[in-house]
Amino acid sequence: MFEADAASAALGIRVEHALDGAASARMTVTDTMVNGHGIAHGGYIFLFADTAFACACNTYGPVTVAAGAEITFVTSARLGDELTAVAEERTRYGRNGIYDVTVYRETPEGREVVAEFRGRSRTIAEVQPRES
């Protein structure tokens, strides 16, 4: 799934781990991700967390998509920040799941949380790729 994800690839997102309902990814905040306030646009942080969520909930095989998600921005990310997103499954029931993703950066003082994301997944029938 991730190998065909052009949106995540365009942002330079790198998946480091994806197995058994968990995933981790990294992304560097680039100049095209910074808004008019000089901080990372929240939409990019959401997309980054959503990518880690997607990788975690698709580790079991069947096609799984987001049924909903929410994010809480804890602090701002800035140009050049190297962010990590860690996704962890909280529960699966039937075709549904709940996953939490923490987005953070390492600082000299330690880990600083940038955002907390909660995603709700739904396993669906196999999706056929669109023809060009």
From TrEMBL:
- Keyword Hydrolase on entry: yes
Query: What one GO molecular function would you report for this record?
Result: acyl-CoA hydrolase activity
Give residue ranges for domain Thioesterase. Answer: 37-108
Give the top-rank taxon of the lineage listed in the UniProt record for this protein: Bacteria
Q: Which CDD domains match?
A: PaaI_thioesterase
Keyword Hydrolase (UniProt): yes
Q: Report the InterPro entries cross-referenced here.
A: Acyl-CoA_thioesterase_PaaI (IPR052723), HotDog_dom_sf (IPR029069), PaaD (IPR011973), PAAI_dom (IPR003736), Thioestr_dom (IPR006683)
Instruction: Tell me the Pfam families matching this sequence.
Output: 4HBT
Q: EC no.?
A: 3.1.2.-
Keywords of the record: Hydrolase
Q: Which PANTHER family does UniProt cross-reference here?
A: ACYL-COENZYME A THIOESTERASE PAAI
Q: Which NCBIfam families would you find in this protein's record?
A: PaaD, unchar_dom_1
Q: Which family does the record claim for this protein? A: Belongs to the thioesterase PaaI family.
Q: What is this protein called?
A: Hydroxyphenylacetyl-CoA thioesterase PaaI
Gene name, per UniProt, is paaI
